[in-house]
Amino acid sequence: MLILPHVRAFLSFEKVRIYSKKKQKIYRKRDESQRKIFINEIRETPEDQLVFLDESGIDTFLCREYGRAKKEEKIVEEVSEKRFERQSIIAGLCGKNTLTPFGYHGTFDANLFNFLLEKCWFRA
Description:
By secondary structure, the chain is an alpha+beta fold. It contains three helices and three strands. The longest helix has 13 residues. The protein has a domain of 63 residues. A hairpin with a 2-residue loop joins strand 2 and strand 3.
């Protein structure tokens, strides 16, 4: 019987009770002194001047990667060749005011960010 490497690793980890966990990532080039300066600036900024943004996206191509079957059975699923576009939404909070949610396709870049700031959220 063929046991795939990732399954073999899982079985051996199961014996010693090691489980999969999400890694905490920290950046190699982080500068703790700069972080402290930034944290102090945030603490001194009035709460109604802080802006909190959150972005979320969904893929419309939903396909299960895993399934259940007897050991000797192969699982086959037909999927569409059609490519689906990722759809995203971003919204924010400034003080007690909700910034209008904005939906978009594609990449959230500096141009889109500046457009939202200047034309949608903080019009002069």
